[in-house]
Amino acid sequence: MIQSYKKNPQLDKSYDAILIGTGIGCLCAGALLAKSGNKVLLLERHYTAGGFTHVFKRKGFEWDVGIHYIGEVQRPNSILRKLFDYVSDNKLKWDDMGDVYDSIIIGKERFDFIKGVENFKSKMGEYFPNEIKAIEKYINLIFSVNKVSAKFYMEKALSPIMSFFFSNYFRKKFLNYSDRTTYDVLREITSNEKLIKVLCGQYGDYGLPPKQSSFAMHASLAKHYMNGGSVPNGGSSKILETIGKVITKNGGTILVRAEVNEIIIENNKTKGVRLMDDNCIYANKVISGTGVFNTFKKLVPASISIKHKYLEKLKNVKPSVGYICLYVGLKGSSDDLNLPKNNLWIYPDDLDHDSCVDRFTKDNDEEFPLVYISFPSSKFSDWNDRYPGKSTIDIITMMPYESFSKWNKTTWKKRGLDYESKKEKFSQRLLTHLYNQLPHLKGAVEHYELSTPLSTEHFSNYKKGALYGIDHNPERFRQKFLKPKTKIKGLYITGQDIVTAGVGGGLFSGLITSATITGVNYLKKIF
Ligand SMILES: Cc1cc2nc3c(=O)[nH]c(=O)nc-3n(C[C@H](O)[C@H](O)[C@H](O)COP(=O)(O)OP(=O)(O)OC[C@H]3O[C@@H](n4cnc5c(N)ncnc54)[C@H](O)[C@@H]3O)c2cc1C
């Protein structure tokens, strides 16, 4: 199904659309366009496809890179579920994580997020009995934001002329929320700093602490998981496997090891792409799912990006923070080791989230501002059939790129002993957090390896190893250039940067990009 460019696959001279990247945005757009009769070609620079949905295997273990849980898919009629069903021809199935999806751990206290709005509300009420009104208000606000967000994102698919006249109508209410930081909004509801800290306990899912993040992002994320979390049945690789099959069944082609060097543009019209070996492939439509920095700083020729002021516009957004992830393999099944399904979010108890981030950014020897622990092997219902007697854990914390930038001229696996020793120090610190929570795991760890922001930069091509594309601050949502259609005829954007980070955001970006290109109302189609 997926071919390697290096093995000289049979390619056509031209395509209806070339998609750069194979993240969820491109997979979704590729499937929608292919199903609408377009001949599509997806080009991926990595040796494996799927972007952050890809999995990797080492020493008999398998880890997900960018999927630990996805919300909304357990409701058969949600937009996300319907869209996943449509682009996978109903082949993608889901495993529910159970009642508790996230546990926020602050010092010695633990706060469980329980699926179902009423359950969530009453559990929070138990933890904070004097804050019941504030919790009620918070939930109402979360839903109010989500009510107006569909219009905001739909505006991105309007033609320039329609957008000129109706943009304000579509965007205004959403911007009232997105212009404010999460902390400002929550502080208006309650003065209880601990409640604020707990309610923002998933901020790692969008990478910015509450005094910097847009409340619209927070609200979207909180609502996304309020009905619990799920993972693809059979492993995260099923996303690529099922959607990829739909693309190829409908005449599309997916190539890995096919890095695009430049988008060919003549007289402001897109003509195709030039690969690293100078080979050109032609299409009047090119869709970049590589992020806005890659698109306008690397792939579009500089003179054209300057002419359309894209370089200036990029100054209004910035890459999100980097991260390190410890991929842990253990001997023993999840049942043997009594591993939970819910994710753990561990925080220092002395300071608020923003101060913890500041403290760590200034000095990496200080406490991690957050430690996220996910237990993939216990979430997949068929894991034991695929990997009997083995289990896996991912441990993540945010990490400024600068902490590793001195090795950015070195190559993967050959970065030197000092790099390895810095990694080992961080690995041990992350393992200590794991053992603090689950001391019985000492002795069960068989393998671990740490990825750094340099690994993310190397594999995913995100500038400075950005965890989630561009930052989700208030300013981001004001940027009108973050939409599918560009000022260059035939060049479109998709992926997390034009909606939000998250597999759901990426999937939805594929829908609005395809709708922009074809004019088809896919929402009507999928329902
Ligand atoms: C550690 C981590 C954990 C996460 N956990 C979750 C989670 O639990 N739930 C959730 O919903 N989301 C999660 N996310 C976020 C989610 O995975 C992403 O937001 C989403 O997958 C991004 O999709 P995308 O379409 O923007 O493309 P990406 O997945 O970013 O893919 C872009 C692709 O473009 C390719 N590319 C770049 N340049 C070129 C080029 N020149 N030529 C060809 N190809 C190129 C890259 O190699 C890459 O494959 C997580 C992300 C990370 C990093």
Mean pLDDT value: 97
CATH class of the largest domain reads: Alpha Beta
State which percent range the strand residues make up: 15-25%
Count of beta strands = 19
Structural class, from helix and strand content? alpha/beta
CATH topology of the largest domain: FAD/NAD(P)-binding domain
Query: What's the main sheet like?
Result: 8 strands, mixed
Topology:
Blueprint: E1 2-4, E2 14-20, H1 24-35, E3 40-43, E4 55-58, E5 61-64, H2 79-87, E6 94-96, E7 100-106, E8 109-114, H3 117-127, H4 132-155, H5 160-178, H6 182-189, H7 193-199, H8 215-225, E9 230-232, H9 237-249, E10 253-256, E11 260-266, E12 269-275, E13 280-288, H10 292-299, H11 302-307, H12 310-314, E14 323-331, E15 343-347, H13 353-362, E16 371-374, H14 376-379, H15 383-386, E17 390-398, H16 417-437, E18 445-451, H17 453-460, H18 474-478, E19 491-493, H19 503-518, H20 522-526
Parallel strand pairs: 1-10, 2-3, 2-13, 3-10, 7-15, 13-19
Antiparallel strand pairs: 4-5, 6-9, 7-8, 11-12, 12-13, 14-17, 14-18, 15-16, 16-17
The structure holds flavin-adenine dinucleotide.
